[in-house]
Amino acid sequence: MNANTVSEIITGILILTGTLFCLFSAFGMIRLPDVYTRSHAATKSTTLGVLCTLFGAFLYFWINDGYVSIRLLLGIFFVFLTAPVAGHLICRAAYVTNVEIVQDASKVYVKESDSD
Amino acid sequence: MRKNLLMLHTVTRIVVFIILAFSVFLFFAGHNNPGGGFIGGLMTAAALLLLYVAFDVKTIKQVIPFNYTTMIAVGLLIAIGTGVASMLNGDPFLTQYDRYVTVPVLGELHLTTALPFDLGVYLVVVGVALLSILSIAEDDA
């Protein structure tokens, strides 16, 4: 196994992990009951997913083309820094405008599964 | 409710520098890579707008005392000036000159007169974007 194959396996695993995390985040957006839990799903796992995807692209171009992309590193740092704060601000705006918190999420799921 | 936007303020202070640095990078990358005066100017305007949103319009006006109307005028003058400079040299309007210059620290650079023209575009874009947004924001009547 030469370096090219190893790099392709590593970047492939990283990018697949990233897309999977984004998919889980989308499931969370559909399944979870209120703004706060949805924000929890959206900010955390999408941030990790985007970071994994960008880092996979960074490693691929570094190993295969010998091109160290500062822009990708800066993008990783930028998303890591700003996405949680964006989630925080959205949750805060929801709380200030008195958006209801679902107290017992399990009851919501039980109701949905009963009606199906 | 008392406003305490500590998270927003702290992150804005860090992030604005990243955006400004990236906008300058885009501005200089325009000749050989995607980028240029227009997108660099928009990005600078976005960074300044983030400051205006995160803090207060009055506060930022004290911190960054730019007059965006004069900024538009200066940008247009620079863009016209690069055109007129080639006319003074005996060539048609907006003829582009380029030269390889060796600078002590940076090494050999390919300098063109397209860069000052792009600087004019940059200043006009920053000025127009911020002037239009701020004049809407300040419309209290």
From TrEMBL, chain A:
Keywords for the protein's UniProt record, in alphabetical order: Antiport, Membrane, Transmembrane, Transmembrane helix, Transport
GO cellular component: membrane
GO molecular function, a single term: sodium:proton antiporter activity
Membrane topology: Multi-pass membrane protein
Membrane-traversing stretches: 6-30, 42-63, 69-91
Nuclease is among the record's keywords: no
UniProt main location, coarse: membrane
Subcellular location per the Swiss-Prot or TrEMBL entry: Membrane
NCBIfam families in alphabetical order: CPA3_mnhG_phaG, PRK12674.1-2
PANTHER family: ANTIPORTER SUBUNIT MNHG2-RELATED (PTHR34703:SF1)
Family: Belongs to the CPA3 antiporters (TC 2.A.63) subunit G family.
Name this protein carries in UniProt: Na+/H+ antiporter subunit G
From TrEMBL, chain B:
Domain Na+/H+ antiporter MnhB subunit-related protein: 7-130
InterPro entries documented for this protein: CPA3_antiporter_subunitB, MnhB
Localization: Cell membrane
Transmembrane intervals: 12-30, 36-55, 67-88, 119-137
Stored Pfam families: MnhB
Keywords: Cell membrane, Membrane, Transmembrane, Transmembrane helix
GO CC annotation terms, alphabetical: plasma membrane
Topology in the lipid bilayer: Multi-pass membrane protein
NCBIfam families: PRK12573.1 (NF009223)
Protein family according to the UniProt entry: Belongs to the CPA3 antiporters (TC 2.A.63) subunit B family.
Protein name from the UniProt record: Na(+)/H(+) antiporter subunit B
Organism: Anaerobacillus isosaccharinicus
